[in-house]
Task: inverse folding
């Protein structure tokens, strides 16, 4: 498999592949325009505090099924 060729584990290989695909997909979306009302709403969303996501935290902390022996 590709991960073995690179000397990496499957989880890291899949994550890196997904990130590269996202970068490629979003490359044309680096500039966008908003009217004043939407800009204000956008800034409020950026400024709000992050929310705790226990399920996501668990997913990222625990070893994946591919990493368990």
Result:
């Amino acid at each position: 498999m590709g991960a073995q060729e690179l000397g990496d584990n499957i989880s890291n290989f899949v994550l890196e592949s997904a990130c590269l695909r996202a970068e490629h997909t979003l490359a044309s979306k680096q500039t966008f325009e908003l009217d004043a009302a939407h800009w204000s709403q956008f800034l409020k969303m950026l400024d709000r505090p992050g929310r705790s996501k226990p399920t996501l935290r668990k997913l990222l902390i625990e070893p994946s099924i591919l990493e368990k022996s």
Notes: The mean pLDDT is 88. The chain is about 60% helix and 0% strand.
